[in-house]
Amino acid sequence: MRLNKGLIVACLMFGLPAASFAAKFNQDDLFKAVPSQSKTVTPSPAATSNAAGAFVNTVSSIKDADKKAKARKFLPIANAKIAEEPNNAQYYLARAQIYRDLEDYQLALKDVNRSLELKPSNQIAYEFRAAIYGQLLDWSSSLRDINKAIEIGPQKADLFQSRATNLLFMERFQEALAAIDRSIAMDSNIASSYAIRGSARFHLHNYKGAQEDLLRAESMEPGNAIAARLRSLLQAAKRN
């Protein structure tokens, strides 16, 4: 018996790891970075880069409950910044995040594509675009971007976890297992990695290994809904 693919999607919905967009600036920093409209400002390249970084990280720090309201607030600021610096890749990436939070995925893709045109080696931009494709259930495009992010480096456990998740949704279970094994070898303290490996092992008919992984995920993160749900499906499969 296989897990229902739609249920896998519901249980393991793809998302860009929060660590990739760690918040370093608060909301006040965003407005400090906005040039005054009453006078002409010619910042140095370093100051421009720092301001762009502040904006990206401020947008990234928006909490889920406030996302849409704050995204609407930040959108005109992002538009103004892009008008001032139309070749700044970071501002397009920031606006892509805003559009993502507004659930306008096509505009988000358009902006992240522009960001990558301006800065083709930006690993985080590929991770972010992969996450958007994942939300659109376009697993092959998401996998392509995750593979590119891994190629650019640095290689990180969460990237291999994302690769495994995409491969799982594409029903390429042996490859998914190899990817999640690599992720766990790099960082063995992520509970969701064991839930993903448990699902891959289940599909490869390694029910004992799947059970061990799902129990480990639950022990590492009590109340882990993904692991609990998958384990209940495993138990049902054993009865059939």
What characteristics describe this protein?
Serine Threonine Protein Phosphatase 5, Tetratricopeptide repeat, 13 helices, 240 residues, 0% strand, 71% helix, mainly alpha
Q: Could you give the topology of this structure?
A:
Layout (H helix, E strand, L loop, with lengths): L4 H7 L15 H7 L11 H16 L6 H18 L4 H13 L3 H14 L4 H13 L3 H14 L4 H13 L3 H14 L4 H13 L3 H14 L4 H15 L1
Helix pairs in contact: 2-3, 3-5, 4-5, 5-6, 6-7, 7-8, 8-9, 9-10, 9-11, 10-11, 11-12, 11-13, 12-13
Characterise this structure:
The protein has 2 domains: 18-139, Serine Threonine Protein Phosphatase 5, Tetratricopeptide repeat, CATH 1.25.40; 154-240, Tetratricopeptide repeat domain (Serine Threonine Protein Phosphatase 5, Tetratricopeptide repeat), CATH 1.25.40. The chain is elongated, with a radius of gyration of 20 Å. Helix 7 packs antiparallel against helix 8 (139-152). Helix content is 71%, strand content 0%. It has 13 helices and no strands. The relative contact order is 0.10. It is mostly helical and 240 residues long. The model is unreliable at 1-48 (pLDDT under 50).
